[in-house]
Structures are given as C-alpha cells and as structure tokens.
Amino acid sequence: MKRFVVTLVLILPVLALGQGGGGRRQTEPVPEGPVPRAASGHPDLSGYWRDDGNANPHGNLGKDLPGFKLPFTPAGEAAHKYNVEHTIDPESLCLPGGLPREDVGDMGFQLIQSSTDTVFIYQYGTFRDVPVDGRKHTEDPDPAYFGEEIGTWDEDTFVIDSIAFKDSKTWADENADPHSDALHTVERWTRLDAGHLRLDLTVEDPKFYQVPVHYRRTWIAAPGRHTREQACSENNIDVSAGHLGFGPGPIRADGTRGYDDPSPLPPLPSKSNPAKTILPPGIQ
Amino acid sequence: MKKKLALFAAAAALLAGIPAFAHHSFSAEFDGHKPVRLVGALTKVEWTNPHSYIYIDVKDDQGKVVNWGCEGGGPGALTRAGMKKTDLKIGSVIVVDGYLAKDGSHLIDARRVTLPDGRNIYGGSPGDGGPGDTGPPLK
Predict the structure, then answer these.
(1) Interface predicted TM-score (ipTM) over 0.90
(2) C-alpha span between A20 and B125 (Å, rounded)
(3) pLDDT by residue (tens digit) across B48-106?
(4) What domains appear along chain A, each with residue ranges and CATH number?
(5) Contact with chain A for residue B123, Cβ under 8 A
(6) Which residue among B13, B21, B49 sits closest to A234, beta carbon to beta carbon?
(7) I want to staple A48 with a disulfide (CB 3.0 to 4.6 A). Which of A88, A153, A225, B32 is the partner?
(8) What domains does chain B contain, in order, with CATH numbers?
(9) Cβ atoms of residues A179 and A205 within 8 Å
(10) pTM of the model
C-alpha cells in the first residue's frame, strides 16, 4: 500500500501536467446514447461541455487552415502586429473573451437551454445569453464582446448569428489574432449524440480577413461538472503591478503559444543533491 | 489490489477532467530561458484568483535576504494538482522551481513546488502554454 501511495503522489502531478493544452489526457468516460430532446422537440444541448483535446493547435483561429495561416488583409496584418506589440491580453484584464475567442479557447463551459434562451457560462464569471424567441437583429445594436446574438434552429442544429462587436481590447483567439467591428460570426451547434457537441464556426470579417474563416471542433459531455466561482479581479497582480507584457509571447511552430525550446528546470532535489537557490546570471 | 487500482483510476479520472484556467500566456510574463530555483522560508500565502501567490525569503551567500513572489495557478488548479492551503505553513522552508519574470522583478512562475515533506507539486496554470503544460511532464 505504501508503494501505491508513493506512486500515486508521484503520478498525480504528472497527470495534472497533461491538462493544459493540446496534449492533455482525457480519460473521463464519454456518455453514450441518443441525443436527448427538450420538451420543444429540439435537441437539448444543456450540460457541461469539456474540451476533447483534439482542437489543435488550441486557441488558434487558423487551426483548420494550411500552416495555420489566417488570410489577413493588409489592415488585418497591421492589426495583428499591433495586438502583439501593443496590447495586453484582454482576458488578463478581466474582460470577456467574447467571440470567436471563447469558441477556440481551452476552456469548457456550461450550457443551459430554455424555450426562449440559450445561456453559455464560462470561467471568470463570463456568460452570454442568446435569445431564441424569433427576434431579428436590431437596426443599431450596441457593440459587445459577444456581439448581438440571435439564436434559431435549423432542423436539429442550433444556429447563432452574431453582429456588432467591439473593435478594441478584444482578441479573436489566444494568439492575439485580431477582429474588427465588421465581424460577423455564424455558429452551428449540433449535438451528435449524448456525449458529443460539435461546433461549425464561420468567421467573416472583410476588414481584416480576405475570405471567411471556417473552424470546427467538438466538446465532450461532462455530467456533474459545473462552472465554479473564479473572481478575475480578486488579486490581479499581473496587471496591477505591471508584470504582464504585450501580446501572447512567442508562438510555437505547432501554432500554440509558448516556447519551442524552454530551458529545463533544475533536477529535483534529493539527499545527494540538496536544494540550493539557483538564479540566472546577473540576478540577485 | 483491485481496491488500489480502483482508487488510482478514480484519482486519474478526476485529474483527467481538470479544465484549463489560463488567465494569460506563460510567455507573456515569464522567460522560458531563465529557470530559477528558490529555497527559502515561506512568509505569505495568497490563495486567490486569478493566481495564487506564495512569498519566500531567500538568503544569498552574503546573508542578504530578498523576498520573492512565486505565481501559481488559482486555488482550483492547485487543489486539483494535489496542493492544499494547509500544506503551506508560514516559516517552513520550501523549494520553488520556475522561471523568472521578464520585467526583472523578484517574481517567478511557480512551476514546481517541493514541500517540506518532500512532495513536489505542479504549481503552474494549466493551459498557459508554459513548460510542462503541453509537452512532456517535468521530471
């Protein structure tokens, strides 16, 4: 038993390490069965949906494009450069991720469906409430991080058409790709069975993208899981103390944010290798 | 043995479901080419969102003490990684391995925390793209 406990203690953090990005393990069982239906007869999309680990590179709107290369217009290219060099990640400022970022990010979400609304609840207290009551887009909607959203059903697919987006302090994805106020998104959500929810997303933004960008991914049902309180402004030292730099930092060759060749941490301390402070040259 | 396997499977399933809570990219704040090891006495714990912070007094060879901040995941991420707030006792000596903040302040990303009882726990923010997040586990 002792050996088992030691093994468990060693393995738990290793398992935890695998949860962050594209290479994460997902051994949680996937619910099986037919598509559940609401009283209206439409598929019931309610539940907690977790990432399936296959939307790689994670957080990259260009995931499904050759070389992950987005079709920027010259203005889009300039906007991307500006985001990278002059803007702090809006989510770290505790602003809503908005669209399309919440659709391409790592995080799972809770979905609550009623006969008149479909509500998405994300981390950091972010939510969106999509009306599904037959209304049309208004003539002069106020710009918003999720835009003005209208929900309809196309047979068994739930469609969200969104216009009127903010054009500053917002990134289109984790890599600081931009969108403008001309953004128009069409999300087609289809529950394939009890365990899978597929998104087909079309992003149109003629100011910044030469052609529409298509993006597809699937989430897995996670019964019993819930979004939890996570107060973004409780102790946001990164921003208040000015530690956070502009942009997402380096982007790896695989299209995700991070270093391709980070230096290793010191070897674990042991009796023969007792821990001693190690600082980079020039740091005291 | 079956009992042990069942317990292990339950723990693995629990951790497999850890959602990512990255608040920002690791590399927007920390230098992946500047690894650091800090050994010192714990002076303060902030068990908060969007990140937790632990502060330790680190003494150099001349006896000068500098208080360093170590940024980790939020309470949810740390708890699921196996750390409890009660593991962090003021005055106890801990080892924190991580990476230096790019702005040159006395702040590191607490990628790995070794507690006085010898346990070492992943302290980073899942999903931030930092070392060990998507690549092979830290050894």
Answers:
(1) no
(2) 8
(3) 999 999 999 999 888 899 999 999 999 988 998 999 999 999 999 999 999 999 999 99
(4) 33-240 (2.40.128.20)
(5) no
(6) B49
(7) A225
(8) 21-122 (2.40.50.140)
(9) yes
(10) 0.86
